[in-house]
Amino acid sequence: MGLDDLVKKAKDVAGDLTEKAKDVAGDLSEKGKELAEKGKDVAGDLTEKGKDVAGDLSEKGKDVAGKLAEDAKEVTEIAKGEGSIGDKAKAALDAVKKPGTPDPQ
User: How many helices (H) and strands (E) does the chain have?
Assistant: First the structure.
C-alpha cells in the first residue's frame, strides 16, 4: 500500500468519523431537548406543590393567629375581672396552656 492509498484511507476514516460525530451530536441535542422539557415539567410541578404548601402554611398561620388573638382577649378579660392577682394569674396561665378553649369561670 502506497502513500497515496494511506492518505485516501485517512481521508475516508476522517470523513466517517466526522459523520459519526454529527450523528452523536444530533442524538445528544435531541436528548438535551428531552431533558429540558422534563426539567420544565418538574419545575412546574414543584412550583405548584410550593404554592399548595405556601397556601396551607398561610391558612395554618391564620388559624394560629386567630387563636392567639382569642387567647389574648381572654387573658385581658381575666385581668379585668374579679379576684386576686394570684387567681387571675392562675386563670391566665390555664387559658394559655389550653389555647382556643373558653374561660371556665
Answer: 2, 0
pLDDT digit string, tens, across residues 48-64? 999 999 999 999 999 99
The whole-angstrom distance between residue 46's C-alpha and the CA centroid of its chain comes to 6
Helices (H), the chain: 3-80, 85-97
User: pLDDT higher for 102 or 6?
Assistant: 6
Q: Which amino acid is at 32?
A: G
End-to-end CA distance of the chain: 111
Q: Is the pLDDT of residue 105 over 60?
A: no
Say if residues 95 and 78 touch (Cβ distance below 8 Å): yes
